[in-house]
Amino acid sequence: MKLNGSEILLECLLEQGVDTVFGYPGGTVLNIYDALYKYSDRIQHILTAHEQGASHAADGYARTTGKVGVCIATSGPGATNLVTGIATAYMDSIPMVAITGNVATPLLGRDSFQEIDITGVTIPITKHNFLVKDVNQLADTVRLAFEIAQSGRPGPVLVDIPKDVSAALAEYTPAPAVKARPIAPPKADRLERTVEILAEAKRPLLYIGGGVIASGAAEQVRALAEKLDIPVCSSLMGLGGFPADHPLWLGMVGMHGTRAANCATRDCDTLIVCGARFSDRVAGNPKGFAAGAKIIHMDVDHAEFDKNVLSTVRLAGDLKETLAIVTDRLDPACHTEWLAACAENRVEWPAFPTDPEAPVDPSVILRTLRDLTDRDTVLVTDVGQHQMWSAQFYKQYAPRHLLTSGGLGTMGYGMGAAIGAQFAAPDKKIALVTGDGCFHMNLNELTTMVSYKLPVVILLMDNRVLGMVRQWQKVFYQKRFAATDPERQTDFPKLAEAFGCKGLVIEKNGDIEPVLREALATADGPVLVDCRISKDANVLPMIPPGGSVDQMIESMEEYENER
Amino acid sequence: MKDNRTVTVLSVLAYNNPAVLLRMTGLFYRRGFNIETMVACQTDRPSLSRLTVTMTGQSAEIKQVRRQLLKLEDIVKVDVLEMADCAASSLALIKVSATPENRHAVLSAAQTYGCRVLDIGDTTITLEMTGREEEVNRFVEFMRPFNIVEMGCTGVTALQRGDTTIFDGLEG
């Protein structure tokens, strides 16, 4: 069957089970959009306000479903606008295929209108990328892109298609969906060593990361933890990989992690690392991190071994398989004393303030939101203080219910990601927690939410400052608040209304519950809740960069008095 | 040779795709890996290229380089070899001043080191020296007093000693 390049592209997307793509049209993708018009009964195209929004939406779709997210942009600025979204997906190992148009092959390399070498630009932020110069290679290239995106450690792949290639005719032969490449099983001698170490461990600790979510290994983590009575902590990316109401759960580890989790990394004698990479936000001081412990590092990516922290045993392989084998070979154990020691470091949350006139505490908003939403709710965040409050106070019980830019820390991620999440899970409630700094970056996507009637609840933590940077200036720069107090006058509810979105306000403690209830009940489109919080609210505890749990700041007043 | 640490050779087999060099050099750059030399060439299999990289890093760094390289889609295999286990060679082309007075001395030096005379100009002689990197370097130092007017060098290219090849263990 002869088809043009654009039709071949869409047929290949259908082969992979893609029914939703996010994008923005333009000159060099006109052929592709013409084909999308023809295929509109089988592939839904979501038009965002900006290509960056499309790239984050594809990411949010992928994180929610576990499937490969797809975004499309035109050449030149369209392609470069995808870059932040691609880099975000790359840093968090999110499977994505980004399709860009380019100028026709005879015009390549001549600085043609809207020409950019997007494959050159995205080499450092993709697993791989392709410039397809021959329509006869297109189908296999698209299939390979999907294979690469979901194999091993997932990530984004970009396919650049010049305009003449998307128009040219070629023979198309249907093929089945590609499969992720097989992963070599963990090595027998290392499994044996792991079992030996774990059998002798007195104070074992599980440290889980995004790999647990990516590989679907949450059940296996739980099985190991329960059988061997091992407490569990997680990086930001691993949240949801272990239920937060489980007695073995210690919380998030790292810079803004719990005292219990951070003390446990200091005191453990064996650290089992599952799909985590000792980022500097977890192991601020890599030399001192779990210094006395034997470290068993399980990961699908060999290059993570000994990159930041040296390990005792390196177990390369699929996490699910590795954990299942290890759990199976070990006898049940009890670590009562160790668990009791860990429990001593738990910090109880304060009771909710009862005064309705009390100022709005962001942690109360998030805890109330948790109480008012079911466990199916997907929480999306932007980046900054509100992101850390979300991680701390909106408990996660299952994988793929927290969408956050952990590695790249992309301010402006949330709006696009929430759109992607809502299309991925039309029946689930999607809540976006953002800040006024982040929201100002990509608020244009409010128009997308309104156009598609997406009932996303946007909680805007409005402190009128760039809170996280300001907090660092407070702690490390003697309160020299450079460029973090912009005195913006934006009226957020009015802004929301101008977009055709409902706008609500939380001004005092007593507003929190009724306003959240009203927002959550809104079903015909997005609702923005302007949560007016103090600019002096801090994210605590905090371990200074490069530091360890012994330098943990737990009260800003005490910290300031000591200085 | 910049210091006394052992020189490691990475023999890299890669698909002969566009940008494979860019992908490799980009990786070295962004991860801060210090490489000494890099030589690329075709192999007798048309779809595959061979890249020979030399490094003088710690073994942990070299492991990290190898693991990162293997993540690149176009890279098929990376063999890590000690220089001592390699049959290795590099090449230098050296153009030296050669006046009627010292022409004989230049030619005699060339002969002593067993290098070829590629060209004789009115005032210069161009020599080709091949050999292990240290020999080539020694020759360059020896020729310096004759006034080297320009010079071009390749990096090291190397094959593992014995009957082992980089293709061992590959399918097809």
Describe the structure.
The complex is a heterodimer of chains A (563) and B (172). Chain A has 563 residues and is of the alpha/beta class. Chain A folds into 3 domains: 2-171, Thiamin diphosphate (ThDP)-binding fold, Pyr/PP domains (Rossmann fold); 188-343, TPP-binding domain (Rossmann fold), CATH 3.40.50; 362-557, Rossmann fold. Helix content of chain A is 38%, strand content 17%. Chain A is built from 23 helices and 20 strands. In chain A, the strands form 4 sheets. A 6-stranded parallel beta sheet of chain A has the order 3-2-4-5-7-6, sandwiched between helices. In chain A, strands 11-10-9-12-13-14 form a 6-stranded parallel beta sheet, with helices on both faces. In chain A, α11 runs parallel beside α13. Chain A is globular and about 70 Å long. Chain A starts with a strand and ends with a helix. In chain A, 54% of the residues are buried. Chain B has 172 residues and is of the alpha+beta class. Chain B has 2 domains: 8-84, 2-Layer Sandwich (Alpha-Beta Plaits), CATH 3.30.70.260; 87-157, 2-Layer Sandwich (Alpha-Beta Plaits), CATH 3.30.70. Helix content of chain B is 27%, strand content 38%. Chain B is built from 4 helices and 9 strands; from the N terminus they run βαββαββαββαββ. Chain B has helices spanning 20-30, 59-71, 103-113, 133-143; strands at residues 8-15, 37-42, 48-55, 75-82, 86-97, 116-120, 124-131, 148-153, 157-160. In chain B, strands 5, 6, 7, 8 and 9 form a 5-stranded antiparallel beta sheet that branches. The longest helix of chain B has 13 residues, at 59-71. In chain B, 27% of the residues are buried. Chains A and B meet through loops of A and α1 and α2 of B.
SSE layout and pairings?
The complex is a heterodimer of chains A (563) and B (172).
Chain A: E1 2-4, H1 5-15, E2 20-23, H2 30-38, E3 44-47, H3 51-65, E4 69-73, H4 77-81, H5 83-91, E5 96-102, H6 118-122, E6 128-131, H7 135-150, E7 156-162, H8 163-167, E8 169-171, H9 188-200, E9 204-208, H10 210-214, H11 218-228, E10 232-234, E11 249-252, H12 259-267, E12 270-274, E13 294-299, E14 313-316, H13 319-329, H14 336-343, H15 362-372, E15 378-381, H16 385-393, E16 402-403, H17 413-424, E17 430-435, H18 436-442, H19 446-451, E18 457-462, H20 467-476, H21 492-499, E19 502-506, H22 512-521, E20 527-532, H23 556-562
Parallel strand pairs in A: 2-3, 2-4, 4-5, 5-7, 6-7, 9-10, 9-12, 10-11, 12-13, 13-14, 15-16, 15-17, 17-18, 18-20, 19-20
Antiparallel strand pairs in A: 1-8
Helix pairs in contact in A: 1-2, 1-7, 3-5, 3-17, 11-13, 15-16, 15-22
Chain B: E1 8-15, H1 20-30, E2 37-42, E3 48-55, H2 59-71, E4 75-82, E5 86-97, H3 103-113, E6 116-120, E7 124-131, H4 133-143, E8 148-153, E9 157-160
Antiparallel strand pairs in B: 1-3, 1-4, 2-3, 5-7, 5-8, 5-9, 6-7
